Amino acid sequence: MAVYNIKSPGLGSVGSYQVSGKPFLSGSINVATATAGPRGPLEISFPSVTRWVILTNHDTSNDVDVAFSANGFDTNNFFTVSSDTNDRANMMTQRMELKVSRLYITGAATQVDVIAGLTGIDTKEIKDNWSGSLGVG
Amino acid sequence: MPYNPGPPGLGHVGSYQGSGKPFVSGNIDLSSHINGPLEITFPSVTRWIIVRNRGNSNNNSKIIKVAGSANGFTTGEYFRISDDYNGTGARRNSTTPRMELKMTRIYLTGSSDKVDVIAGLTGIPTTSIRDNWSGSVGIG
User: Fold this and answer.
1) Model pLDDT for residues B110-122, shown as the tens digit of each residue
2) Domain enclosing residue A110, as ranges
3) Chain A residues 36-95 within an 8 A CB cutoff of chain B
């Protein structure tokens, strides 16, 4: 007798991106401490593929760099979230509608928040978080 | 004979309904590009684009221009992004909204030393858009 077995959605499951995300919050990240010395960039791993990601830098004097692979910092495939000095507009990202399984942050900022909306898509659907792709590094 | 559907076309709705594959080109020093605009080439058609100008000045001297073709700068078919700090606070136009645009390239010019381009990519090949819409009204 055949058994109907519902599998988890794939990376191209449009409906997974049309509904709102399951929340993922990681706040008050001390990037300076987490990346001190030989530790390298801090990796934020999501439990499932993201539908969107927002980063906020509340540090009043230090920027934070963001990439989607650790290598991206060496290949200029990163962007910077400005410090919160004088209410700079670039201290918070837009809601970036990106399907990723990890992101990497580095810098001297001590007050960084990561907010994401998650799909139910397994992170295994994205091989190595796009690392090696043009624009990711 | 096996069925081979090929890559999605430019009008494939599902490609724009899913979230994008990331593309980041950061920390761009436009002030060093003195021989014409800087071309940013995407590996596939974009679903959305954000351009951020993190340059600082008191008089907005690090304002930048963004166009869809190099010719757009001479035909007035471009927009501007202010720099991020005027001496007392932020300029609200120092970052774009998430612009939901299907493009294969953008062009930047200006004197800012800190510009980031972030995009969400579809899986649609760039060959689906002939010359990045160049020649169209609004592109130049």
Assistant:
1) 999 999 999 999 9
2) 32-123
3) 50-52, 65, 67-68, 72, 76-80, 82, 86-90, 93-95
Comparing CA positions, the residue from A63, A94, A45 lying closest to residue B117 is A94
Amino acid at B11: G
Question: Would residue A10 count as lying in a domain?
Answer: no
Residue A51 lies in a domain: yes
Mean pLDDT by 10 residues, chain B (140 residues): 86 96 96 92 97 89 94 93 79 87 96 96 96 91
The answer to whether residue A69 sits within a structural domain is yes
Residue B36: is it exposed, middle or buried by C-beta count within 10 angstroms (0-12/13-18/19+)?
A: exposed
A102 part of a folded domain: yes
Q: How many CB pairs under 8 A join A and B?
A: 113
Q: How far apart are CA A37 and CA B66, in angstroms?
A: 39
Domains and CATH numbers, chain B: 24-133 (2.60.120)
Query: Model's pTM, two decimal places?
Result: 0.90
Whether A79 and B52 lie within 8 Å, measured CB to CB: yes
